[in-house]
Amino acid sequence: MSKFIEPSNEDIKIEKLYKDMGLSDKEYEKVCEILGREPNFTEIGIFSVMWSEHCSYKHSKPFLTQFPTSGEHVLMGPGEGAGVVDIGDNQAVVFKVESHNHPSAVEPYQGAATGVGGIIRDIVSIGARPINLLNSLRFGELTEKQNRRLLRGVVAGIGGYGNCIGIPTTAGEIEFDDRYDGNPLVNAMCVGIIDHDMVQKGTAKGVGNSVIYVGLKTGRDGIHGATFASEELSEDSESKRPSVQIGDPFVGKKLMEATLEAITFDELVGIQDMGAAGLTSSSSEMAAKGGSGLHLRLEQVPTREEGISPYEMMLSETQERMLLVVEKGTEQKFLDLFDKHELDSAIIGEVTDTDRFVLTYEDEVFADIPVQPLSDEAPVYVLEGESPKYNETKNDYSDIDVESVFDQLLQHPTIASKRYLYEQYDQQVGANTIVKPGLQASVVRVEGTNKAIASTIDGEARYVFNNPYEGGKMVVAEAYRNLIAIGATPLAMTDCLNYGSPEKKEIYQQLADSTKGMAEACEVLNTPVVSGNVSLYNEIRETSIFPTPVVGMVGLIEDISYLNDFHLTSGDKLYLVGATKDDFGGSQIEKLLYSQVNHEFEAIDLSDEVSKGEAIKQAIRSGVASHVQTVGKGGLLLALARISAHYQLGLHAEIDVTNAQLFSETQGRYIVSVKAGQALHIDDAVEIGEMTNDGQFKVFNQDTTIARNVKTLTDLWEGAIPKCMTATD
User: Which of 318, 320, 377, 551 shows the smallest number of beta carbons within 10 Å?
Assistant: First the structure.
């Protein structure tokens, strides 16, 4: 007789139960229709997590179909743990970005650490060896003590996990705005390398084949984590601290190595990470993809404490776990492998031909659910959006104090150097990092070859809020430009769509318009979407975050030889490529002077991005360009200041723009340095100055001269975030 006594429908108020678990009345009715009866306690829990926004994308799925997902280099697009893209020579790059926003708001260290651990396992479950990590972060302003606490915890969690597991963190981006107060965004990206013939899929097929559990023993941590990630944060969120999982990077390292060895076994049928919704999602999704049934014997699941019920086993999000399906009769081969790596493992079930997802504990049935409806029939909601009427009057920038604006923007944490933060990450473990964090996309060598993978992660939340459609195009183009600026050929992208509640008409319209713009940019820039994640309900106290789609993009460098001479030196000439206009919508000067986004219309020319990008890439690879910097947040003057401070070189430039245009954020611009004795022959390229060794930063326009000692400039730029983080108030 089972020691578990599951509450019956007579013992509990069924309506309160399913609503507390996140199911609506109509969703519960659909569950009853699928089962032909009322679900029991465990079955309600299973449907609630599988049909949560986090797992089913029930509000965002219609928009995801807009994205191009195939292309010349795409080997495997969305639907598995990560996307796979060909890089030649029978090799491929595997990558994905995911969010861990809500957990990081409640417990920043573990929320961020387990976000890193989860995305690593996604890459490893495909069979790839991770080569680098990236992150995209958003916090409230650092003038608030709470935001400093969150930033400190998140950065420590990212470094604590990545450093211990031995994967370098090579790039990222961070912004600060009061719209993220109490609701930080923590998006983690991982990139890996694999041979074509080693690519794995999360599938359960072959009647009689065995299901093997490997990794940490199951505990009660993370139960209903997927549901927690699918609702708004509130004052009650602190009480949901148990929903945050605990990471163990040392076990994660063992699991990674064991998994990469297991994929070399021909008897492996399928493998999947136990991520959101734990054993429930991994097992049921594998069964659905394999067109099979599955019978799990839960008394065989390794647990770390007595009395864990089937409900808790299925919904636990204990970290560092994988689920494998292996050929019948070969189980011991895998168990011996995991034992060698000092990992707990067990045979917990088998594949069936019943097309049902059956869970038993000591022969008592705790769930009996048809596989396909559980995985594929989650409701999809198409709601009505509404664009609010915006103030279209343009702000006045005709009489700005250039000196004051420059100093304030230089020291704002969004623009200031992030060295204080990224130095907490190991950037070179593995000895393949070529370009480290700082100014550009990261570059990591493909070991044993002369190739490298460039990777970047970018978000443009204020642009998207300013104009969702154009802003959606801009965020993809920014990632594209960052890869071009290092000489890489952009291949494909992954995205994480971070928004507020889709049940609010304005938010739903932001989601609709911005994804449309993103999809158009993907088509024109030839960067298909091969993986991704959606994070909705990012709200606290009725305030939504800015719409924040984040794009992770990878590019290929076929021969890294040109990078040996790709660095700035005194005497290099500076060119500006691209015209500067009065573009202030969503800009940093707008935020500084007017606080709110004024929704001034700004647009981007995608076809111009392609032609200009190809010309820039050719200048880099031919050895003409010694450095390329995109002109992004803060505008041209701040981009020049960052170059001077980063390289500790003097810079003299004269620019034919107005005072305000020094801070304009017109799209599609590059600063290109050219080696002495050469010239840049690109349309719209204008020589504006040179690098010097006199230690002085001087920029002139027709009205103003900005002059700073480079050391002073550097101290302000690099000291801004440390000054904020050591504040005592």
Answer: 377
State how far the Cα of 97 lies from the Cα of 495, in Å rounded to an integer.
Answer: 6
Annotated active-site residue in 59, 73, 100, 627: 100
Measured CA distances, 660 to 405, 577, 633, 640, 690 (Å): 10, 19, 14, 15, 22
Reduced to 3 states (helix: H, G, I; strand: E, B; else coil), residue 80 is strand
Tell me which of 54, 59, 224, 412 is the catalytic residue: 54
16 lies in some domain: yes
Residue 39 lies in a domain: yes
Grade residue 240 by pLDDT with cuts at 50, 70 and 90.
very low
Q: How many domains does the chain have?
A: 1
> Is 428 annotated as ligand-binding?
no
pLDDT of residue 226: 46
- Is 72 annotated among the ligand-binding residues? no
Burial class (CB in 10 A: 0-12, 13-18, 19+), 683: exposed
* 412 in catalytic set: no
**Token pair 């059956």 in the structure block, residue:** 358
Cα 559 from Cα 220, distance rounded (Å): 49
User: Binding site annotation covers 96?
Assistant: yes
Q: What integer pLDDT is reported at residue 231 of this predicted model?
A: 52
Burial of 351 (0-12, 13-18, 19+ CB in 10 A): buried
pLDDT in tens, 699-721: 999 899 999 999 999 999 999 99
309 labeled binding residue: no
29 within a domain of the structure (yes/no): yes
Q: Which structural domain range is residue 31 located in?
A: 9-51
Q: Which helix (H) or strand (E) holds 410?
A: helix 402-410
What token pair was written down for 548?
A: 């924040």
33 domain-assigned: yes
Cα dist. 27→35, 38, 281, 340, 649 in Å? 12, 12, 18, 45, 62
CA 402, CA 703: separation in Å to the nearest integer?
Answer: 10
